[in-house]
Amino acid sequence: MAAARAGSRPLQPTGRDPRAICEIAAPASSSAQASNADVTRHHPLMVMVPRQQQPLLPSFLYAPPSGATGGREAPPAAVVAGAPSEPPFGKIEMFSPAYYAAGAVGGAAACGFTHAAVTPLDVIKCNIQIDPAKYKSTSSAFGVVMREQGLRGFYRGWAPTFLGYSAQGAFKYGLYEVFKKKYSDLAGPEYAAKYKTLIYLAGSATAEVFADIALCPMEAVKVRVQTQPGYARGLRDGFPKIVRSEGYAGGLFRGLVPLWGRQIPYTMMKFATYENIVEMTYKHLIPTPKDQCSKPLQLVVSFGSGYVAGVFCAAVSHPADNLVSFLNNAKGATVGDAVKNLGLVGLFTRGLPLRILMIGTLTGAQWMIYDSFKVMIGLPTTGGAPAPTTVPMEGQAELKASA
């Protein structure tokens, strides 16, 4: 810079708008490159403007900054846009440790609070699955619980539910972001864009393996407390009672494999269906590109897409959910015992309508809470088919530093 400054003449007043200098720095076509190069020699400050590049990560994974231009040549004002008060993705750099930690926090809030909120529905569902002779239907089950246990009976097991699903949500959402990025990098931009649904499926399945290890002990306590009213009052006495009588592996983690059988297909369907529904919504139902839609509208899309995804999730994972409830309730029971007791039809249908209602609402609310948290800290919402950014983050950082 010093050598270039020494070899150039001082700028002379021309009477032109000073913004014309920035216009020179962003050539509109290849035919103007020669003249712009000459201007750069006479105005050495122009070399500070970064050249336009395409991002290495496939553009479909995340929304661009609000100033993205949809793949077209950036207008002159785009070079001087990006004020210090409006960083590209808020205060957190994309794909940094802080970004993944934010995903974990958002996932914990999304799963913990929503599962705790639907505890009454979960109590009814589990009892229908365990004792269909006593709890013949959803409406009669509500009446039986109210008569025998009172209003408090609908909230039995809320503490292990909240803690277990908060831990599960942290691993599920946080690691999904990690593995989605990891598998996209391994595949490369071309194949990641071509096989994006496989990226969603693989990333969510891998994340759920770890998430269920965190959930399994609390799930065992929850089911036992909800379906055996005299067994324990809650987490405080239920957890040590299971450990004393059945041990850690035999009591708390006995249902891990069926839990994987329920949760891994559920989560694969949840994330892959959600991502694709959001993309189709912005392509076919909303005429405005995602990055130009208001944040409230984006969150409405998040809830609606999540609800539809939840319906598919409930149907796919319901047989395994029946197995988990049966095994955690009956001491020493096996998968064969559960199938024999429930029957093939009962395995797929017992408690399904209530679970569709519960999981649809649950999944829609989870995605809305998760994306609301991301918006609050300056990150883009999940899913959609955004246009590629034309100025890389590194270049925008240099622009802000030189401003």
From TrEMBL:
<dbReference type="InterPro" id="IPR018108">
    <property type="entry name" value="MCP_transmembrane"/>
</dbReference>
<dbReference type="GO" id="GO:1990547">
    <property type="term" value="P:mitochondrial phosphate ion transmembrane transport"/>
</dbReference>
<dbReference type="GO" id="GO:0005315">
    <property type="term" value="F:phosphate transmembrane transporter activity"/>
</dbReference>
<feature type="repeat" description="Solcar">
    <location>
        <begin position="195"/>
        <end position="280"/>
    </location>
</feature>
<dbReference type="InterPro" id="IPR044677">
    <property type="entry name" value="SLC25A3/Pic2/Mir1-like"/>
</dbReference>
<keyword id="KW-0496">Mitochondrion</keyword>
<keyword id="KW-1133">Transmembrane helix</keyword>
<keyword id="KW-0809">Transit peptide</keyword>
<keyword id="KW-0472">Membrane</keyword>
<feature type="repeat" description="Solcar">
    <location>
        <begin position="297"/>
        <end position="376"/>
    </location>
</feature>
<dbReference type="GO" id="GO:0003729">
    <property type="term" value="F:mRNA binding"/>
</dbReference>
<keyword id="KW-0999">Mitochondrion inner membrane</keyword>
<comment type="function">
    <text>Transport of phosphate groups from the cytosol to the mitochondrial matrix. Mediates salt stress tolerance through an ATP-dependent pathway and via modulation of the gibberellin metabolism.</text>
</comment>
<keyword id="KW-0812">Transmembrane</keyword>
<protein>
    <submittedName>
        <fullName>Uncharacterized protein</fullName>
    </submittedName>
</protein>
<feature type="repeat" description="Solcar">
    <location>
        <begin position="98"/>
        <end position="182"/>
    </location>
</feature>
<keyword id="KW-0677">Repeat</keyword>
<comment type="similarity">
    <text>Belongs to the mitochondrial carrier (TC 2.A.29) family.</text>
</comment>
<dbReference type="GO" id="GO:0005743">
    <property type="term" value="C:mitochondrial inner membrane"/>
</dbReference>
<keyword id="KW-0813">Transport</keyword>
<dbReference type="InterPro" id="IPR023395">
    <property type="entry name" value="MCP_dom_sf"/>
</dbReference>
<dbReference type="Pfam" id="PF00153">
    <property type="entry name" value="Mito_carr"/>
</dbReference>
<dbReference type="GO" id="GO:0006970">
    <property type="term" value="P:response to osmotic stress"/>
</dbReference>
